[in-house]
Specification:
By secondary structure, the chain is of the alpha+beta class. The protein has three domains: 99 residues, no CATH class; 78 residues, Helix Hairpins (Orthogonal Bundle); 147 residues, 2-Layer Sandwich (Heat Shock Protein 90). The strands form two sheets. Strands 2-4-5-7-6 form a five-stranded mixed β-sheet. Helix 3 runs parallel beside helix 4.
């Protein structure tokens, strides 16, 4: 790009110089022809009007001609350069147009094709960014509306059952325990939705800080799978973890636990009933490979590419009561990339696989 700009500057400079030279030569030729054809007439006219001026011109003719040519050259140079400077004005106007009317294509002079192409590229990037921002904002607003609506359902149940417990004095212990379990379950759902609200806010307001320390991420994953057993059993799922005895890694244990939990919960939410979720961890000489695999419905390719976009959910028909905020995978990707790693996804047949690569610094 720098070379192309240098070539453009050189081209404009050369064209300006050639114009000055050509125009100056033409002006000199015209003046010479005028003097050649009407020298006697001009001399007689000056002599008759002012003899002293005539004598002064005759004695200083060479210097006067030099002065005329200098003034002529400067005038031509000024107008040529001024005309060349219009390119700057043209570019400034086009830049302002991008901000005010980005949907309109930029057209510049033929000499500015390079700048025209760059400005149109900036214009397209601006439109893309604006559309992405609007789309993300709309998705966020929709999710907040859905989640606010879904907050009412568990809260209504909690209020209803607490009212029953307070008003029904002769309620049996078994029924009381049943109601208390329902209240607990609904309260946990309220907590989950509240955390999702916090996720939406924090994702936009701050960059996630990372505090690295020596951890055994194999043990971290094992504890996570153990903690998730209740939700696995509730969905009639099993989870098999394959890992070496120990995998030492320097990273943020809390953030990595959150990333892995997001992937596991995503697998739980979208797996077929009575299937197995596989988590395979391998330690390579310079990398740690982690694979999450589960059986679920086929995801179209165009949706697969958007899974890591914030507020995006592959199954848009799901209510928020059965899914997340659409931030889980976006946050997971952010955490993995902040650790210098990568995450990818593929969907073949009935299996969806999330593959993580972490750079393994020897401890």
């Amino acid at each position: 790009m720098n070379k192309e700009l240098t070539r453009l500057k050189n081209s404009l400079a050369i064209k300006a110089i050639l114009k000055i030279i050509v125009y100056f030569i033409l002006a000199v030729i015209i003046i010479y022809l005028i003097l050649l054809t009407s020298e006697d007439f001009l001399a007689n006219m000056v002599y008759q009007s002012n003899e002293q001026l005539y004598n002064y011109i005759v004695w200083n003719k060479p210097w006067i001609l030099v002065l005329i040519f200098v003034v002529l050259f400067i005038s031509i140079a000024f107008f040529v350069l001024r005309n060349t400077m219009r390119y700057i004005t043209e570019t400034i106007v086009a830049t302002d147009k991008i901000l005010k009317e980005p949907e309109k294509e930029i057209k510049l002079s033929s000499d500015l094709v390079l700048i025209e192409n760059q400005l149109n590229k900036i214009r397209i990037d601006l439109i893309t960014s604006q559309n992405a921002a609007k789309d993300a904002e709309q998705k966020k607003n929709d999710l907040i509306v859905y989640m606010a609506h879904d907050l009412k359902t568990p809260l209504t149940s909690v209020i209803g059952y607490i009212t029953l417990l307070l008003e029904e004095k002769g309620i049996s212990p078994s029924l009381r325990e049943k109601y208390m379990n329902i209240i607990l379950k609904k309260a946990l759902r309220v907590e989950e939705l509240t955390n999702q609200f916090f996720d939406i806010t924090r994702y936009n307001l701050q960059k996630m800080p990372i505090t690295k320390q020596k951890i055994d991420i194999g043990l971290l994953m094992e504890q996570l799978v153990e903690e998730c057993k209740p939700i696995l059993e509730e969905k009639n799922l099993t989870c098999q973890l394959q890992k070496p005895t120990q995998i030492l890694y320097e990273g943020d244990g809390d953030k990595l636990a959150r990333a892995f939990e997001n992937l596991l919960r995503n697998a739980v939410n979208y797996s077929f009933a009575h299937t197995q979720i596989d988590i395979i961890m391998q330690e390579k000489p310079e990398e740690i490979h982690i694979l999450f695999r589960n059986q679920s419905e086929k995801i179209p390719e165009y949706k697969l590419e958007k899974l890591f976009d914030k507020f995006y959910r592959a199954d848009e028909a799901r209510s928020s009561s059965s899914g997340g905020s659409g931030l889980g995978l976006a946050i997971t990707k952010q955490i993995i990339e902040l650790h210098g790693g990568t995450i990818s996804v593929k969907n073949e047949n009935d299996y969806i696989e999330f593959f993580i690569i972490l750079k393994n610094t020897k401890i």
